[in-house]
Specification:
The complex is a heterodimer.
Chain A lengths: L1 H13 L4 H4 L12 H8 L18 H15 L4 H12 L14 H32 L2 H18 L1
Chain B lengths: L2 H24 L18 E3 L7 E3 L8 E6 L4 H15 L4 E6 L3 H11 L5 E5 L3 H5 L7 E5 L5 E6 L4 H17 L3
Parallel strand pairs in B: 3-4, 4-5
Antiparallel strand pairs in B: 1-2, 3-6, 6-7
Chain lengths: ~160, ~180
């Protein structure tokens, strides 16, 4: 059945033609819809057919349809949050390039900081141990002697 | 901290990470889990493929366990799973179709040529119902229970294995649960 999956993938990929060739649809931005807001939003959204392309980049049929949907929802006066919610209820968080902060994504958002904190702790401990070792390595008497030896050597050099 | 714990900790951490990444290797990124599972089927009302003047809606599914298959004549993999749909229909599975972004004549011809496993087909020329159902890669197949709640989504062509391992057992389970 491997070839079946391969064929299926190949068929999906046919939709993934570069956006360079595609160009965006000519939507009317003279009315309700602010072009900048529209463009801003569609680069935040992932095309599910060509998963490493945003809606703005993809020439897949679905991307065309979803761009039309986004434009129409904007035209109806919906906010970005409402439009994103519209897509998330249908396609899941996967449509967002920026994953939302929620319990299942805590590890994604906070994991690196936890690792950083662990690294800092280990570093601090190591430094501290090293510092205390040099201090406790010699007793007061030994340190006195050490100074003498080091101090005594200086005049010898002349 | 005993010495052996200090030496074992990185090893344990490494094994855990390796296990996690290994699991990731076996996941197919093309299978995006649908947020619609266990949610009521999105409402639609569309003309029938065969009789454009008659409307079909998700209310027509209610009361029976239904398979809802998204297909199109331009979809190569749909042709591939078609014999399996024919088999299922013969076994008495209630299959409705969503003819997705297709041409009416081409779709009718297809059903004449290869056989028609569907009780009826909704004709979604613009793909808006497809968007409501979160369709992104035809063919897709949904299982809807008696209450009209989506219980399963299969992305890509049905295969004998997928029928045996997931779909048929679930179908039986849904049919046995009453009410």
């Amino acid at each position: 059945m491997k070839w079946l999956r391969l064929l299926y993938t190949a068929v999906l990929m046919v939709g993934c033609v570069s956006a360079m060739a595609a160009g965006l649809e000519a939507f009317d931005f003279s009315g309700n819809v602010d072009e900048n807001r529209y463009k801003h939003l569609i680069i935040e959204l992932r095309c599910l057919v060509c998963q490493n392309q945003s809606l703005a980049d993809s020439d897949a049929g679905l991307a065309h349809d979803l761009r039309r949907e986004v434009w129409e929802l904007m035209d109806q006066g919906q906010s970005d949050t409402q439009i994103i919610e519209f897509l998330v209820t249908r396609y899941g968080d996967f449509v967002l390039y920026n994953p939302p902060v929620k319990p299942s994504t805590y590890i994604l958002w906070y994991g690196p900081f936890v690792l950083l904190a662990i690294g800092l702790l280990v570093l601090l401990r190591t430094l501290k141990r090293r510092g205390s070792q040099t201090e406790s390595g010699f007793s007061a008497e030994e340190q006195e002697r050490l100074k003498q030896v080091l101090g005594a050597k200086k005049p010898d050099r002349k | 901290m005993p010495r052996f714990v200090r030496y074992l900790a990185p090893l344990v951490a490494f094994i855990a990470l390796a296990g996690l990444l290994y699991k990731g290797l076996s996941l197919d990124p093309r299978r995006v889990p649908s947020p619609l599972i266990d949610k009521p089927a999105p409402a639609f009302s569309l003309p029938l493929l065969q009789q454009p003047e008659t409307l079909i809606s998700n209310a027509d599914f209610k009361g029976q366990v239904t398979m809802f298959n998204v297909w199109a004549t331009w979809c190569v993999a749909c042709r591939q799973e078609h014999p399996l749909l024919m088999q299922l229909a013969k076994q008495g599975v209630r299959i409705y179709g969503l003819n997705y972004k297709d041409e009416r004549d081409a779709a009718k011809r297809w059903l004449q040529m290869y056989g028609d496993p569907y009780l009826a087909n909704a004709f979604d020329a613009e793909g808006r119902t497809g968007i409501d159902w979160g369709v992104y890669g035809t063919p897709e197949t949904f299982l809807v229970d008696r209450q009209g709640v989506i219980r399963h989504k299969h992305i890509g062509p049905l295969t004998t294995e997928s029928l045996k391992s997931e779909i048929l057992p679930l179908l039986r389970k849904l049919q046995e649960s009453d009410g």
